[in-house]
# Entry
Amino acid sequence: MTLDPSVMMKCIAERVIADKKTIYVSLEENMGCGVGVCLGCVVRTTTGYQLVCKDGPVFSGSDIVWQI
# Structure
């Protein structure tokens, strides 16, 4: 059985945001190139798609559109 850490981060982020506090999450995605060329580490945010390798890996928890 493989555990996905994004499920835990989503639950924690939602709870912290509900308490009107700020949270930052460090995301792990598969990175093919590490410089943003392959688009293998794209994550959806409220401002559009971001690259974990180039724009992150730390994002505001309220900016992430959790797709779990």
Observations:
- The first helix runs from residue 5 to 18.
- The two ends are 17 Å apart (CA to CA).
- The helical segments are 5-18, 52-55.
- The mean pLDDT is 90.
